Amino acid sequence: MRVTYVTAGAAEMICGSCLRDNILVRRLRDLGCSVVLVPVYTPITVEGENSSDNALLYGGISVYLEQKFPPFRYLPGFMTKWLDRPGLVKSLTKKRKIEIEAENLGELTLSILRGEKGNQRQSLKRAVQWIKKESRPNLINLTNLLIAGFVPSIKRQLNVPVVVTLQGDDLFLDELTDSHRNLVIDELRRLASNIDGFITFSKFYAKKMSNLLGVPEEKFHLVNLGVETDEFNDFTRCPIEDPTIGYFGRIAPEKGFHKIVDSFIEIHKEYNMKNARLCAGGWLSPADQDFFNEQINKLESADLIGSFEHIGSPDLDKKKDFLGKIDVFSLPTTHEEPKGLSVLEAQACGVPVVQPDHGIFPEMLAKTGGGILYDPADSKSLSKEIVHLLTDKDHANQLGESGRKNTFELFSARKMAEQTLAVYQQFTDS
Prior knowledge:
The protein is α/β, with parallel strands linked by helices. It is 45% helix and 13% strand.
């Protein structure tokens, strides 16, 4: 089977979707599936080996110029091809010359979704031609529906099945203005009728996106999220003496970083755990710098800045070191999280987790038994459950052991690849 997997690059940010797509492609190849991983907009950044092709569809510079300057919409491909060089695009996104925040991309998103009727007709044409000539797939998998503007052209010219993995499309929509959001949803509903099948990681998200897109639930296929468990085979936890709470995710409001900071302060003040520490890792974008500074100010006001550490966006070895030193993990998202990759990684390391009772987490923890759900409507609930696990070591260890065992058995990258391949085979002859 020849598959073209189209992923959305996030420039310098190591995003959960990029990590997951990269891991999946490696494991699909191990199963004998011929997969080309090609990014759109910007190259992907991952922790380990990058499995993506050295090509770029819908290069971020090209689509921006086509949107802002009408003459660029009519230039022949050979004159603009050099703009799509991955190195050039990566350099400019690193320097913040290309805006990537959703709130600034309403009109651009609409234009791309409109496909041949949008301003990126030349980029669309180059993308379709590259797929036809370079990858020649008998199935295409998109990492989200927001990049599906070229699908009608693909269906007409290649006549191959198209599968879309939904792993956070609604979160992007929530950052748009109301006027843009409604128009984008209309375009997504139109494009959804061209999609042969959808993959989600939970029944919750399948139902949510089925309602949003107006697509029958029978078109949705459940695949367990997967982590590269081989990387944690020889993992050994070495907690430090002080009880330590871990957070790993983007430093952003929707990921609930302020929630873990507030909980940490409460644990010190109301539970008298004076030696407790908070260690946080994850990408901090320039757009969220003010938000991060607000949390630092809260920690300084509570005289707890010395008990806090931000390790940034580490490589895999440093992430494992981080996971080995914490006693409990929480990613207290304010939104209904569709993935929760870092939560699975914590469980793979035997770290008990405390997660909000919404999104993917109820289904995930029901399968792993690796943590506790808290009531996100109760401001005291998160702190209460964290303290419980910090003080009841036997229960914490029990949850940690269960989470590690079941993550290895049910949420490995290989298992994810096997389930994904089974979905592909429903739409192909092999």
